[in-house]
Write a structure and sequence with these properties.
Elements lengths: L3 E6 L3 H16 L3 E2 L8 E6 L4 H17 L4 E6 H5 L1 H5 L4 E5 L8 H4 L7 E3 L22 E5 L1 E2 L10 H5 L3 E2 L2 H13 L4 E5 L16 H11 L4 E4 L9 H9 L6 E7 L3 H6 L6 H14 L4 E8 L6 H13 L4 E6 L17 H24 L5 E11 L2 E6 L4 E5 L8 E10 L2 E6 L1
Parallel strand pairs: 1-2, 1-3, 3-4, 4-5, 5-6, 7-10, 10-11, 12-13, 13-14, 17-19
Antiparallel strand pairs: 8-9, 15-16, 15-18, 16-17, 18-19
Helix pairs in contact: 7-8, 12-13
Amino acid sequence: MSRTVAIATLGCKTNQFESAAMEERLNAVGFTVVPFAAGASLVIVNSCTVTAATDSQSRNLIRKARRLNPDCRVVVTGCYAQVDPQALRDIPGVAVVLGNAEKRNFLDFLEEAGEGTRVAVSDISAETEAVPLPLTAFAERSRAFVQIQNGCNAFCSYCIIPYARGRSRSVRADEVVEQIRSLTARGYTEVVLTGIHIGGYGLDLAPATTLLELVERIEGETELARLRLGSLEPTEIPDSLIERIADSAILCPHFHIPLQAGDDAVLQRMNRHYDTRFFRDLVTTIHRRLPEAAIGLDLITGFPGESDDEFAHTLQLIEELPVSHLHVFPFSRRPGTPAAAMAGQVHGAIVKERAARLRELGERKHRAFAQSFIGRTLEVVVERGAGRGACRGLTRNYLNVLFPGNARLAGRRLPVTVDAWRDGALHGTLA
């Protein structure tokens, strides 16, 4: 029997981390990982359910896998499998549906034969510990990701994730430090700390700890060269963490912060626990202390009831803030969330137009931020070849720089002098 497997991953960095861990374990038991289009004998769809559109993408991937290989077995896991396993069980060709907690034992389900579809989805809200899948390497990546936390307690009105991932649960600091030591020994120079809600790290542990204390341990107890933080809620970025990043030799000056809306009334409807004045003061504080830091924002546009004036407030706030890039998400009704049933659903054409305006603003902000470094020499971690004799490197403040080089440079930290901005990217030469 063929032992080929393809993994299709939708959604967040946590899903990407877990897919990489599953791939490593599949390789260890004799599977050959192939591209999705190759028509593998086993296909794993690691699903996302953040919007109704991502549910549809998961279903389409299942059907496509069966078209490519009618005899393949399809295993569906991830957040869509967690919140609506019955919908997936009824799709022809699905052999197994696994919840998020079952990912850690997914190999146990692959060899089980039998008629019909096996569904193994436990109550994620009952999970009290974070048990990340072990992972020692990242294929075709020069940066490593370490999952330090899972779940979320926020219950924003548009979000299904607390129901798909459970309550916030933290990985013990000793385990995080040991994993980073292992990755550093394998040659990784940058690690990204990931999770669903990493700003809440450690509050569930006994004794309780914080993200700041974890970061201090990593800096003091490992030989890691660069440490990058994943997305942080605005209410979970204390001055002490900003100061630590400013003074640190390894922490990257890069903040990924979900603003979601620049209007106080919209933020209230979203069940976000801050206002625009608080957010403005936070970004101003970061920029004052770290003027060259990358500050990227998540934004949802077209939230129910969003008026022209409310959207204008978001545009104005972003115009005035010293941010470097935007991640823009058109609102999509997610069944099971309060926002899906709210009055004042915004017409799709208006949502699309507003998203386009925000993305144009984000591109303008990013271009200005990037161009401010022309003529400077910056340290990059070489990520991969960019084709035609070029490499791509990532700076500490989250700028990609293209420069002449080859694949043998991947993973190295190198100084690159930034020469120009063209075709939407920075270009430079090895210093």
